[in-house]
Amino acid sequence: MALPRDPEKLDLGATSDTKTSSDYDKNYAEHQETSTTRGYDPIIDQYSEAQIKRVVRKVDLRLIPLCGLMYCVSLLDRTNLSNAAIAGMTKELNLRTKNPDRYSVITLVFFITYVIAQPPTTILTRFFGPRMWLATITLLWGATMIGFGFVKDWKTLVGLRLILGILESGFFPGVVYLLSTWYRRYEVGKRYSIFYLIGSLASAFGGILAFGLMQMQGIRGYGGWRWIFIIEGCLTCLVALLGYIFLISFPDNEKSRSIHFLTAEERQLIIARVNQDREDAQLEKFTVKKWLGGAADWKIWIYGLCFGCATTVSYALAYFLPIILNEELGFDTGTAQCLIAPPYVWAGIIMIATGWFGDKYRQRGACVAFNAMLCIIGLAVMGWAYGDTRARYFGVFFATAGANANVPSVLSYQANNIRGQWKRAFCSATLVGGGALGGIVGSTVFRSQDSPTYVPGLSVAMGSQVVILLSVGVLTVVFRSDNKKADRGEKLLENLPSFRYTV
């Protein structure tokens, strides 16, 4: 049923709830030009704030939890190597060699194919639709993960990680792009944070889950580390089926049954709100020139650089924290896996807090800079409080919070400062590609020969956060200058007279 209208507001000519979606599309197009200012829209003006919030909440409940759950198994499947390593995989597959460091090679190769396969993924998400595309690749990488449990040597594991990189490369940029099409610019901060927070449950509680699965040691003759891969792969396949059933398409795709949980009027309300905010809700016809045109904007590459610097630390912690806790801080295997959870819980609190602050006060750069400084403090304590186990573990909280909270913060930073469907699609791909490059660095900087202090790795990680601070400083100066020029009518930002950058 359509939401009730205010009879004193402008009527679009709809007299019955039986109007078709195409009728409302026609009405929307006819009345789009009657909006003379960005503060007024003939569709939005029919609804009260409470009614609008109710519609947006329907989208939230259908979109955010499921995307977060699918991202949770994505992170779980790409980062469970560390838990398997201390559960017996390192010894059984003889991974602790120094030339090469086989464990580092296994973690690294994932990102090679992840980066190479990245560019066309947002286009494929549009072409096949989010439900079909994202659910299918999730199912396939779940099956690949099951295969991890049956490897006989480390070289086979390298091959499977290469395949996993190809399959997972399509997920994160596709979801980031999908989420950005449903919300206005100052609504995405909290939602990206909640989405990533749900995903981070993999890092927070993956160790506890792995510890439980280790107890299956010896069942059917398989080691406990093998069951970690097998069971978690089965869980991924189950989540993929949920995605196929419940995941929704883009708001402008009226032919998709997945968005029929909204009435035609409600869907047009969503589109009108996005257009009122940045006028890019309707999909332009795809051309390679339009898609690649985003590459000419130097700021897009800065967003990717910031994202890569953030993931350098987040991936390093995901891959090496259990090993550091176990081998360097002296905790036994079970304790090390359980001690992973508290820092990620703290990271979740910081994540939500910065997302809320950024949306409420329309600040993005400040949140990114704050998280980077928090990470630097944590890394310094981890590296230079050697001999004090409690202090080093305390440093883990700050480093984990700063690095992980900056993932949704940087996502919001770039989402607020670009417009256009295909530019957004290109930026999602380059942003996540930058994150993958950060993963390459993060998976190699903590070398076994640098144990127990890992000073080179910690220094690189701290340097990456300094790069974020410098990048935010440059963007802040440029954004303020360009906004002032736009106010004076001297410059057109993002091809829209009313557009202003979010500092």
Brief write-up:
This protein has helices at residues 21-32, 49-79, 81-92, 102-116, 121-128, 130-148, 154-168, 171-182, 188-214, 224-246, 264-278, 288-293, 298-328, 333-338, 341-361, 365-384, 389-416, 421-442, 455-487. It has 503 residues and is mostly helical.
Features:
503 residues, mainly alpha, 19 helices, 71% helix, globular
Rounded radius of gyration (Å): 24 Å
* Total E-strand runs: 0
Total helical segments: 19
User: Terminal Cα separation, in Å?
Assistant: 40 Å
Helix fraction, binned, reads over 70%
The largest sheet is: none
Order of helices and strands: HHHHHHHHHHHHHHHHHHH
- The proportion of residues in beta strands is under 5%
Low-confidence stretches: 1-38
Shape: globular
Structural category: mainly alpha
Mean pLDDT, rounded to whole units?
87
Commentary on this structure:
By secondary structure, the chain is mainly α. It is globular.
Write the layout of secondary structure elements.
Blueprint: H1 21-32, H2 49-79, H3 81-92, H4 102-116, H5 121-128, H6 130-148, H7 154-168, H8 171-182, H9 188-214, H10 224-246, H11 264-278, H12 288-293, H13 298-328, H14 333-338, H15 341-361, H16 365-384, H17 389-416, H18 421-442, H19 455-487
Helix pairs in contact: 1-11, 2-8, 2-9, 2-10, 3-10, 3-13, 4-7, 4-18, 5-6, 5-8, 6-7, 6-8, 6-10, 8-18, 9-10, 9-15, 9-17, 13-17, 13-18, 13-19, 15-17, 16-17, 16-19
